Amino acid sequence: MFLLYFAIIILVPLFAQMKVKSAYKKYSKVSASSRMSGAEAARRILDSNGLYNVTVEETRGVLSDHYDPRSKTVRLSSDNYHGHSVAGVAIAAHEVGHAIQDQQNYSPLRLRHTLVPVANIGSNFSWILIIIGMLAGLSNFVLLGILFMAAAVVFQIVTLPVEYNASSRAMDQVVSLGVIRNDEERETKKVLNAAALTYVAAALVAVLELLRLVLIYTGMARNDE
């Protein structure tokens, strides 16, 4: 049973990462028929939604693309910023999808922003408390660690609708604005779905780990009685 559990928490994220890298590698070599770069696509979608105050910047790294709600900035990795590929356009549109969510006060996005500090604390301190509790046989420490970890798990779960909604918005925008043609929709969806799979894998692993720790705590609490 434990072997199956560890196989799941190791292999599922690896599979998700492989899908992302495979889809990105494949479709980063396929030029978008509009010949728009990721930066140009992002700018067009932003302007068409009245988001003139949101800037588009180049950032270092590979697949380091993200939207920063504090500075109202869409940051695209160099290949996606300058490139004219289907993959680059899809990722740029996805990040703009978050900017549109921000503009419209999309409630799951607001909830995720609220959970960020709590999730960071939970990720950093939960294991310290759990390990101390397990080594010292202190079930209350384990329980406290589980509560901290639960906050991080909630963050992972809330992230799912945020990411899928951003991808849905991205598809609507690139199609309606002519950034991609009809025959490119399938390729664009493959890139977006592969990226979303990483969040599903992270949420699944987080939930499984939380359940395992709950079972450990239940056994410790039973022994304390």
Which features characterize this protein?
225 residues, transmembrane, transmembrane helix, mainly alpha, three-stranded mixed beta sheet
What would you note in describing this structure?
75% of the residues lie in helices and 6% in strands. It has 225 residues and is mainly alpha-helical. It has one domain. The two termini are 27 Å apart.
Q: Secondary-structure element sequence?
A: HHEEEHHHHH
Strand content: 5-15%
Q: What's the domain count? A: 1
What's the total count of β strands?
Answer: 3
Helix content: over 70%
Envelope shape:
elongated
Spatial separation of the terminal alpha carbons: 27 Å
Brief account:
InterPro entries: Zn_peptidase_2 (IPR007395). With 225 residues, this protein is mainly alpha-helical.
Please write out the topology.
Blueprint: H1 2-27, H2 38-48, E1 55-59, E2 66-68, E3 73-77, H3 78-82, H4 86-103, H5 107-136, H6 139-176, H7 185-224
Parallel strand pairs: 1-3
Antiparallel strand pairs: 2-3
Helix pairs in contact: 1-7, 2-4, 4-6, 4-7, 5-6, 6-7
Transmembrane segments: 127-160, 191-217
Keywords: Membrane, Transmembrane, Transmembrane helix
Organism: Peribacillus huizhouensis
